[in-house]
## 1
Amino acid sequence: MHPWAEWNHVVKLDPDKTLVDGESFEAVASSGTDAIAIGGTTGMTEEKMARVVEACGRYDVPVYIEPSHLGAVYHSEAHDGYLVPVVFNAGDPTWITGAHKEWARLDGEIDWSRTYPEAYVVLNEDSSVAEYTQANCNLDPDEVAAYATVAERMFAQPILYVEYSGTLGDPAVVEAAADAVESASVFYGGGIHDYDSAHTMAAYADVVVVGDLVHDEGVEALRETVRGANEA
Amino acid sequence: MHPWAEWNHVVKLDPDKTLVDGESFEAVASSGTDAIAIGGTTGMTEEKMARVVEACGRYDVPVYIEPSHLGAVYHSEAHDGYLVPVVFNAGDPTWITGAHKEWARLDGEIDWSRTYPEAYVVLNEDSSVAEYTQANCNLDPDEVAAYATVAERMFAQPILYVEYSGTLGDPAVVEAAADAVESASVFYGGGIHDYDSAHTMAAYADVVVVGDLVHDEGVEALRETVRGANEA
């Protein structure tokens, strides 16, 4: 069984951003979320990554690094492994196979038994991740479903990640992705900001990922999204 | 067990090319090769594909279609399935995930139980496949090995295909790829033209693929490569 089999909700922390004044990593870890993923697209260094990993690793909740590039890789006993994005609709193959090849070549310490790929489909053309990966975001639900099928059938991807980073996406797209996969888990990320948005996306996605909210609004708002995800 | 588990040698027929005068598909099928793969990079149509598939499908040897694009897909009882190239070092993501997404979207008849991906690393920069896919062919053996590791570990690819299309490659690169994989089978293609070239590459590759030779020199030359592959 994969570590995320029982997850409904994940917090994604960006080491380049701060928590809300007066709040702690302990409060985030005890928000009711099922896991903490640590990653970000820009401004990442191993030092920033290490600080957040070590802080979060003290609590009971599983901690995963989501490396965007080699500078975001940080080996430590304080985390449970890596969730590695593969952007299936990237325009630049660096984000499908290229960066991964460089990681395999330059890092002699990869523990593959706790390294899991995530098949991303990036859908908000205004997001930094879309710009960075030159993603083709102009996709109909059936095209997203086809990427999901290919990710599962031809590339044995255990996670299909519908990513609307920065904006709440179209539930019909998440539904199409969920209908297309058989055993892969569907993660949804983007614009989750309250009970309702979490509840809506969790109707189709196995796991709802909440990112900016924790940095912008804080743990009380986060708890509402946990409740929305769990009650879907 | 995968169909190719016991294969040493594959003939690749290009439906856009002819056999040597006076030779037949029956002679190719009874050359001692373990399988016939049918595919080509340019000039492919479903009609050309159908003609060669139906001709080869009458004999005992397994027949697989290797579709380069949707026009090369041909559903029939005369073949055993599809070996689908995924070009891990392509510069254009169409050849990693894009064409595959279109196939999954537009073809309602895909039988995934007999559809297998092949993780290609394309290494002859002068070949049409390199030009077509905008492959980055300037790779050291350790980079090819890293692609092999990623193909197996992150994408569960059952075949790692070292492709020197049109020229005999560097055995050290094939060895590096073979050393990098654990359970994936290594296919080698490019420039196999006699006993020695087949024997050399089969020392490292599980399967040696012979293409142009059968169109240019004929079945007698082909038999020599079968012998070279089997005696390695």
## 2
Amino acid sequence: MALAVAAGERVRGTTSPNPPVGCVILDADGELVGEGATRPPGGAHAEVVALAQAGERARGGTAVVTLEPCAHHGRTPPCTRALLDAGLARVVHAVSDPNPQAAGGGDVLRAAGVHVESGLLAEEVERGTLRAWLHYARTGRPHVTWKYAATLDGRVAAADGTSRWISSEESRAEVHELRTKIDAIMVGTGTVRTDDPSLTARATRSGQDVTRQPLRVVVGMGDLPRGARVLDDEAETMHLRTHDPDVVLGALAARGVVDVLLEGGPTLAGAFAGARRIDRVLAYLAPKFLGDGPSALRDAGVSTVTGAVALVVEQVSMCGPDVRVSAVMPSGAAR
Amino acid sequence: MALAVAAGERVRGTTSPNPPVGCVILDADGELVGEGATRPPGGAHAEVVALAQAGERARGGTAVVTLEPCAHHGRTPPCTRALLDAGLARVVHAVSDPNPQAAGGGDVLRAAGVHVESGLLAEEVERGTLRAWLHYARTGRPHVTWKYAATLDGRVAAADGTSRWISSEESRAEVHELRTKIDAIMVGTGTVRTDDPSLTARATRSGQDVTRQPLRVVVGMGDLPRGARVLDDEAETMHLRTHDPDVVLGALAARGVVDVLLEGGPTLAGAFAGARRIDRVLAYLAPKFLGDGPSALRDAGVSTVTGAVALVVEQVSMCGPDVRVSAVMPSGAAR
């Protein structure tokens, strides 16, 4: 299953609106004979890729897959069919498919005499490779990660507006790596006017070229300045003239966007936090203090301490000299 | 040495202006025959306490002590004399004494034919039990730990001024435990007016009674409100009518205060941060967002990002649901 998870992780950011699933095939003797991951939309699912590699050696073997195999005919035939045709004896999957259209694959396989197990490394997959897609499948809304870099006193810029750089080189490199794994990057019009970011993923730490750029999304009523970097040809850009997070998420879902990185600024983040439409927060906190300047979040509609937007810390660790905090909305908190 | 460190830690907060030293004595066969820690000022030093317990069994044995034994005659005779009188063959200490008056104990012992080693667990002692005292011995200033509890967006209260409770019960209990280990708690007059805190250490998690209260220090020009809790009989209170951190630290050093806990508010913390008189920051960050309300730090005299007060993270961990960050001023940063 760890191999299947890794295979899925490698294609994260290239499969939406389909899930980045990973699959390995073991033959009847337990030897690895195939490995695959979801191809870009319209292409083969992970099971089919892995089965093609395994060929006849799959017969009597085991498929290990991060998500319950689909039982429906979408742009590709159901994976359950492919698994049955290949003559597999056993299917082990991490998480069940919450999508009512595609679900029930386990039952279909069982009815056909295949031994089906579920739950292996389920938590790792739920929190990792399939987190965004599972959220999207369950709620119909793209998964929103709010990423910000601030000082320990919560400032995202100094009194004079300077913000380069609050966080370390290591943290900034990690964010570029993250951008290669998501579908869309979102900022407010204020950030475009103030910082003129290009919002593209640049060379990764591993030195690999970035072959695919996420969609750039700018939210707000104001016009974008002529010549703004987000209007260049490096990636596609969508300007949504609204302040309503649900309107934004609806428009993105309609485009097949599953995984969104909200990169600010404080006003847009405040609107999303206030609407409880931030599913995860990824904070890079530099061990610095400014004592003045804008805070990471503004206008979240909270006036008293008991009304705070409350999350649960999932992981805390170091990224170079900075503290990295990953916190998630407790399940059931979103309306 | 780990036993000696633990013995010193147990008396932390009761020995100032003397260091909370721990000592164990092993006999010639390496068996533990004595253990001791610094008694309150005027009382015996750790070595003398441990030697008294060991008695004649110390002869030919080893003293393991967190700090180089003193060679000077203060309120008590030099520890080097006591060690020589007891006939010890070997002395192992963690850190050397930076105090010019008391230093040289190692040389005195060596000249008398004792085998002396230093450096064992030195870093642990430097960062732990003896951190504050070593800072005080080297700079003449009390060591300042700024403790604050804030949301991840750096707020210490909501827009309506409510702040109970930003941090978790676990974090608050830990702070009470911390208060039993320091010499003085410091706040600004603004905090006294706004929160009316009692600034006492209450029952600890271990259920032990608190036998000693730290000095309460209020800094600022304004008068304290009649009936303020800091004026009750629970502990002594000192009101310093100044805004200058160095005047405050001078007054505290003159009273033998070695280890100070700065508990806010944002203006006082800003004055200390701006003067680079915060030696350590202990932040309890609750995974909550307010988007409004006062930030943890104000007016630190920083206007641009490159002028930020920069620290180094020493430890990051969880305290209940909160993130606990301990960061220290890089050596040489204080003027």
